[in-house]
Amino acid sequence: MNTKLLTASISMALALALNIANATPIAKDNSNAQNVNMQTTNLTAFDEVLNRYGDLAVKLGNNDTNKEIIFFYDNSCKFCQHELAGLPEITKSGINVYVLPFLNHGFYTDNARKMFAAWSTDQPLSTLLTDKDIDKVELKRQVAEEMADLTMFARNTLNIKKTPFMLFSNGEFIDGYASPHDLVAYLKSH
């Protein structure tokens, strides 16, 4: 990597990290979304993640909207499983969701291996959720390396410490579970 590119990457990472670290809760003004603890970050964080890791993203929904979510998903997280189950309600409400693999519980676990395998296929979520022949999937080294890079970027730059973590196209985010109903109500009101 050339020095100018490395310097630019480090500068951008520091700028994003400072904006995330200084996040403040957003006042809740919708009674249906009162359980959603929204915070705000740099408006470019959403685009930065999709520009760098969009090829790993599984897009759910084909809505013509500016209301979009990046969902950092860890197969080891029971709350991520609940959030994933509610994604159809979110996409039916006109919100697009990009699911990205986040290895919050480590790179060398059985669940991490399953996620590496699932994302080595053309249908990562279907493969992961059905668990059908997942042990027979040939792992793609490039996919595993990109997932590890995404996880380190998310931890170090976006300051993601727990899952589920959802980053919104308007610069807001939530770390932790929120019901699909509450998420939709909040996003529709903002």
Largest sheet, spatial ordering of strands: 1-6-5-3-4-2
From the alpha carbons, calculate the radius of gyration and give it in angstroms: 16 Å
- SSE order, as H and E? HEHEEHHEHHHEEH
- What is the end-to-end distance? 40 Å
The level of helicity is 40-55%
Characterize the biggest β-sheet. 6 strands, mixed
Helical segment tally? 8
Brief write-up:
The protein has 190 residues and is α+β, with helices and mostly antiparallel strands. It has helices at 3-21, 45-53, 78-85, 87-92, 110-118, 124-130, 141-156, 180-189, and strands at residues 39-40, 58-60, 68-73, 96-101, 165-168, 172-175. Strands 1-6-5-3-4-2 form a 6-stranded mixed β-sheet, sandwiched between helices.
Account of the 3D structure:
By secondary structure, this protein is of the alpha+beta class. Helix content is 44%, strand content 13%. It contains eight helices and six strands. A six-stranded mixed sheet has the order 1-6-5-3-4-2, with helices on both faces. Helix 5 (110-118) packs across helix 6. It is globular, with a radius of gyration of 16 Å. Residues 1-35 have low confidence and may be disordered.
